[in-house]
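Researcher: We're teaching a course module on how sequence relates to structure. For the next exercise, students receive a sequence and then see the predicted structure as tokens, so they can try to spot secondary structure elements on their own. Here is the exercise chain.
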Amino acid sequence: MKVRLDKLLREQFEISKKLCRLRRKRCGAAYDLVLAEVLCELEAKGDAMRYLDDSGHIAWRATPTLRDYIDDLQLDAEADLQEAE
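Model: And here is the predicted structure for the students to work with:
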């Protein structure tokens, strides 16, 4: 089954997937299991939410709180980069 994620959640999942690979080199966790684990953790923390897309499929998106947090981090990183120059 295809899991639909918005761009922000997809990026977070890819980062988490890479970290899981580093932690579990010998145990090749299935893609679906890692995705389910990451989405459950994000939903429990309030950073992701499920919804029905236009086709009636379950999809996931980042909450406005997570989006604002990542935007703030990006602005801080850009400011730090400008200060370093």
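Model: If you want an answer key for the exercise: The chain has three helices and three strands. The helical segments are 7-23, 31-45, 64-84.
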